[in-house]
Each structure stands twice: as structure tokens, then as C-alpha cells.
Structures
1.
Amino acid sequence: MMAVCLATVPLIFLVCVSADLGNNKLSEFCAGHPGIPGSPGNNGMAGTPGRDGREGRDGFPGANGEKGDQGERGYTGPAGTPGNVGMRGERGEKGVKGESLVTYHSAFSAKRADASSFPPTDQPVLFDTVTQNEQGHYSPLTGKFTCAVPGVYYFVVHATVYRISLQFDIMKNGQSVASFFQFYGNWTKPVSLSGGSLVHLEPEDQVWVQVAVPDFSGMYASPKTDSTFTGFLVYSDWHSPAFLG
């Protein structure tokens, strides 16, 4: 059995509750003024970790870092496959002219056959017996060599001196290039006089041997001793870079 009593106090309501629950009785309970707030309770126990949150958005790019040290050189990789043949390039400039592979020759040798008289003065001595003259640059009729290949030549005279002394010149275009002399002292046997010179020649230049003084014209020849005139090309200007310019 439960009984509820309500009593009226000025502006205050009292509620009384009485209950009889078998052998147990509850005291009367009446609502009063709110009590003073209690002291904060102790911290509760830590809860279980929550789930991972969703992945956030990408942040802004950071500033460039400092340049690192150069790393070690790597191994050489395998050779690649050959590429396609490229287009043909433009034609290059004309190269410098090289030396000619052609070898130029000019050589002769002749001797005096007439031993009955000495050569006349102030004119070419005739060496009228030719022993070598493949190019035909020497004329036994005039005693002159005419240049066909420009370059440096060597000319030499081997003369037998007998009866009188001998002086002769190697001439180039009327000018003496070299002069030689051999005294003869009335010996019973002839003596020899030899002389030669290098000469640079241009085409059409001429070289010959000449005596100037009648008293010094003792150039002699016999079947056992000769007087010869020889010349040959040492090198041609056509092989010289200066000439090719």
C-alpha cells in the first residue's frame, strides 16, 4: 500500500511519499532546495584509443634544400642499338692543294770530242758528244742547257788541262755563276780541273760553260782523257709549298 500526502507551505510544495513494500518501509522523501555543488570528482580512467583519422590534404611544397655532394660515378651501361643513318651533310670547302705525286726529271751529260783545238773565248764551249740527255734539255749544237722544269740544279765540269793553263766559268743567262782556274807548268802529262755549282733556274733559263782569256783556254780531250759537262735537277719548285701558293 502506498500513500502520497501533499502539504501546502507558503510558495513551497512538499511531497510525501510513503510506501509499504512488504516488511521494508521507505522513509518519507520530500524535495528541498538544491544543494551546494559538490567537489569535482577524480579523473576517470583513460579510454581506449580512437580510430585513425582520415588522411589530410597535401601540404604546400617546402623550400628547396641545399645541393648535395656529387655521387660516385655509376657503371657504364650497355651500348645502345645503332641509330638510323643521318642525312648527308653539306659539301665541305676545297682543301689545300697537296704535293704532286709526279716526279720530274732533267739531267744530261756530254763531253768534248774535238781535241785538235782549244775552245774559242767568250762563247759557249761545245760538249758535242752526248752521253745522257733523255729529256733533250741540253743541245750539243749550242753547248747550252735550257731549263724546262723550275727548281734547283747542280752543274759540274771535269776538264783535262794540257799545254796551257785553263780558266772557265759556269754561266747563267750570260752571267758568271762560278769561276775556276788551273795553272799548267809545261808538264809532260795533263792535269785535271773540276768545278761545280748549285743554280736555281726558271723555265727558259740557260746554262753553259765559257772561257774568257785565250791564254787560259787549255781544255783538252783525247781517247784516254775527257772533258765533260754534266747537270741535273736536284729538286723541283713544283714540289715546293711556296710555288704551290
2.
Amino acid sequence: MFPSLLSRLPSLLLTTASTSTTAASPPPTPPQTLRLQPNNKPLATTLVAAAAAAGLLLLSPSSPPPTLADPEFTVYYGTAASAANYGGYGGNASKKDTAEYVYDVPTGWKERLVSKVEKGTNGTDSEFFNPRKRTEKEYVAFLPGIRALAPLSAVLDNLALSDVVLQDQIATAEGVRAEERREGGEGQVYYEYEVAGAGAHSLISVTCARNKLYAHFVTAPNAEWGRDEAMLRRLHESFRTIQPGAPPPATES
């Protein structure tokens, strides 16, 4: 994923970028009320009529459709260990105290175990995928020896140099959004990218900490993006690094 980027490490420097705004949502439609006219019918008949009327109210076109419950999430703790120190067994039980980054994982997603060879060649550190659609996934890669970020546009270009899938998404994208975010307004710098390709949608977050570059990817085919956009954005927004000496976050969110 990042072999070509290794040769460009000295060029990575800090910069600033654009911001984005969000349109305000329209006010919610006030609930409708149902008024029943008085009548002299027996009590049982009246109760049946009232229940039927209530059912019609719930099925009214102006009523919002029922929604599924939000999926549950767990927090993944990534250690960004070197290939030499990597056991290759996966898991998350003993990583909390040594974690360098965290992100949310939907309950039911599966972890793909990363080999030492893959970790050593392209920097992939962790990956989870939806078992119903393996190409709907999130993963983190890291590169050591990088103290600061390059200009906003240069980082995305460098990421794409060694990632054919990302290259195709950018080449067919209807739009590519890029912005800089500072944690807490004045803290650590994160670059945020959104690539809306012809076949897939990707959200990418990149930052530098501990003399390393970390890149978190959330990607899904357009059909899954349309269905799971809110969840996928949550995964993207959950990624952050942990500063040395800082307490680890909670085990669930």
C-alpha cells in the first residue's frame, strides 16, 4: 500500500488547508393529532374504533418510517509494532496499555490477520471487514521516521502512488474533498480526505505522532456506502492517536 511512499519520507512537512460547512437541517414536521367525534355506541365498539384509528395514524404517510437500532461498536487498540516485534496472531486483549491509536469497529465485523511480510512491506498494521461484503472495510497503515505532514494535496498523491485501488477511485471520482483538522481546535493536526469514486467511496484520515505517520482508511462499494454512510462516517471520525503517557480510552463507545 505504501512502498513508493517510503522513498518520499523527507518531503513530508506541515501545512494548512480548507474548512467545510454543514447546511442546517429543516425543522421537524409537528406530529399530527386525531380527533374522534363523540358517539353513543357501546364501550367495546368505541375501543375497537379508537384502536383502529390509532393504527391509521401510525401508518399515515406523514409519519416517519421505523428505523433500525444503531449498531454496537467496540474500540480497537493498535500498537503499530514493527514487523520484527509482531506476533501475527491478532487479537485485542493485551494491547490497551501499549496502544498508539484507536478506532471504532462495528460488532460483527471480522479482523483480517496481517502477516509480517505485509506489515514490513506496505505498513499495514490492522484491518477489519464486513463479512457480508469484504470490500466494506477499515484499516490502518503506518510509516516510521516521519515527524510532520507534507502539504495537504501531496499526502494524498503519495498515498495513491502505491495503492492501485485508491488511484482508480481518484481517477473516476466525482469529487475529492480535503481539509485540515486540529484536535480540540489547537491540538494535533489531522488531514481528512473524502474520495467519491465511480465504484467506491473512501474516507481517509492521516496524522503524525511518535515520529510516525498513521493513515486510517474507511472504504465501501457505493451500494454499501448508500446503506451504511452514517456508520462509516462514525468509523472515520473515531480514529485518533494516543500520546505517550496519556490514559487509554474506554473499551466501548
3.
Amino acid sequence: MVPDPATVVNITTMVVVAEGENAYFECSISANPITPDMIRWSTKGGNVILRENQQFTENGRSLLTLFNVTKQDSGTFECEAYNGILDPDVKTAKLVVLCKYLKYTNSHTAPYISTFHR
């Protein structure tokens, strides 16, 4: 069996939540074989996000939860797939945290909006 390089195949591209809520991101990779240490979440500035905020599933998915977000958490996050073959593959996701005092003008608009990119 010839190992395949790790690549990000799906990522949540944007999450919009109100201040004080939790934000959820998903990143799926393709590789052969797949192990949990192949996926790493970080901020755009390079700060690695703690493992206790991540959940790895056996099929190459990593779920990232940011608890009780504040406006300071807004920004770009990166999901990196790397298994030592070729260069790491990195895709980005954006978090927008709305002021908790913001009123929703459309009652049909959910306070949690997420988009998933394939």
C-alpha cells in the first residue's frame, strides 16, 4: 500500500454566532492511512488550538468547538492536513461573533449560521 498525501476535502467556511454562544467548525481530510494527528487547527496567526477543543472521528473528520465566544475570537482559523508526504494542505474558516445586544431583524433568521464548503 502506497501512502497518499493528506488533503483537506471539506471545511466549514464561515460561522456566525452571537457573543457568549459556542461556535462549531468541521474539517474533513483524505489520506491513506488516516490518523488523528494529521489534522491540526490553528488561528491565522499560527497559534495552535488546544486539543481539548477538538474531536477527531475515525473517518477523517475533526470537529472544533469554541466555547462562550467573544468578539476577540472573531477571525480566521486554519485546518491543516499533514502526514509527512508533500507539503501540508491548509484551508481556512472564518468566525464572525456578533454583539450580544444585536437584535435580529428577521424572525426567520437563525442566530447560528454555518456554511460548509466541498
